[in-house]
């Protein structure tokens, strides 16, 4: 496993992507504070809340997330196939450990980087905007809160809500990385892997059932709607991950 972490941390492209992922939420906070006369309260200043005008950083970060994950870690198997190193590692580790290790490093590294990025944004927001007064949630009607108890709870516990959504979204990004790595197992070619990964993600983030609704706190969508989205997504991802893993373990690789 040390080999995979060393590979991640010594790859210049991976380091570049990690830095970009860490910077997007910070840039979003800077834009937010420069777009409005008064500062937002810290809980409404966070990246996932999405109060900056135009949502440029959210678009650049979240819409193109599969590309970043592929470059950072998920295309490792494609690199191994191109160099022939996959055969050496399979002989040394065995199929189950080799493919399992690729999946594990994809999940843990993607989860960790995304979580660190959002946590850093959380900390900086609460430091810089500690004296903020602007709170869009204050204008939500009492009638809406009465029919959306989950929204009412979130607004009553903004710090916990933000931390929970940071954790949930980071876990989903980790599972997305597992799915993209699994696609690379079946299609060890960049043109196919990048295309299929992006198309899959694009379909998931479009429409009223966008997976990005799971990323954003303080929305008026009912709990049942959000639960349906997350269950459908996890089932789809699980089918792709399990099918790919068992196929590669059972087929001849060498």
Account of the protein in words:
The chain is 74% helix and 0% strand. It has one domain. The protein has helices at 2-10, 12-35, 56-63, 65-74, 76-83, 85-93, 95-128, 142-147, 149-156, 158-186, 190-205, 223-250. The model has no long low-confidence stretch (mean pLDDT 93). The protein is built from twelve helices and no strands. Helix 2 packs antiparallel against helix 3 (56-63), helix 4 (65-74) packs across helix 10 and helix 6 packs across helix 7 (95-128). It has 254 residues and is mainly α. The longest helix is centred in the middle third of the chain and has 34 residues, at 95-128.
One letter per element, helices H and strands E, the order comes to HHHHHHHHHHHH
Tally of helical segments: 12
Number of domains: 1
In whole angstroms, the N-to-C terminal distance is 21 Å
- Helix percent reads over 70%
Poorly predicted spans: none
Largest sheet: none
Radius of gyration: 20 Å
**Shape by Cα distribution:** elongated
């Amino acid at each position: 496993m040390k080999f995979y972490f060393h590979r991640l941390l010594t790859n210049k492209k991976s380091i570049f992507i990690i830095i970009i992922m860490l910077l997007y939420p910070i840039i979003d906070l800077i834009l937010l504070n420069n777009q409005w006369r008064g500062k937002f309260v810290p809980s409404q200043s966070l990246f996932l809340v999405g109060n900056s005008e135009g949502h440029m950083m959210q678009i650049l970060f979240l819409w193109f997330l599969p590309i970043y994950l592929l470059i950072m870690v998920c295309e490792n198997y494609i690199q191994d196939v191109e160099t022939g190193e996959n055969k050496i590692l399979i002989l040394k580790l065995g199929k189950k450990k080799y493919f399992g290790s690729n999946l594990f490093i994809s999940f843990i590294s993607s989860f960790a980087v995304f979580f660190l990025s959002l946590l850093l944004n959380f900390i900086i927001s609460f430091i810089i905007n500690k004296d903020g007064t602007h709170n869009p949630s204050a204008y939500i009607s009492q009638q809406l809160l009465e029919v959306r108890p989950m929204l009412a709870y979130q607004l009553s516990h903004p710090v916990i809500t933000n931390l929970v959504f940071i954790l949930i979204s980071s876990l989903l990004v980790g599972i997305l990385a597992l799915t993209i790595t699994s696609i690379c197992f079946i299609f060890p070619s960049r043109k196919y892997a990048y295309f299929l990964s992006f198309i899959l993600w694009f379909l998931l983030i479009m429409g009223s059932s966008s997976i990005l609704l799971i990323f954003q706190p303080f929305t008026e969508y009912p709990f049942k709607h959000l639960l349906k989205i997350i269950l459908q997504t996890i089932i789809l991802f699980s089918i792709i991950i399990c099918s790919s893993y068992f196929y590669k373990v059972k087929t001849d690789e060498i």
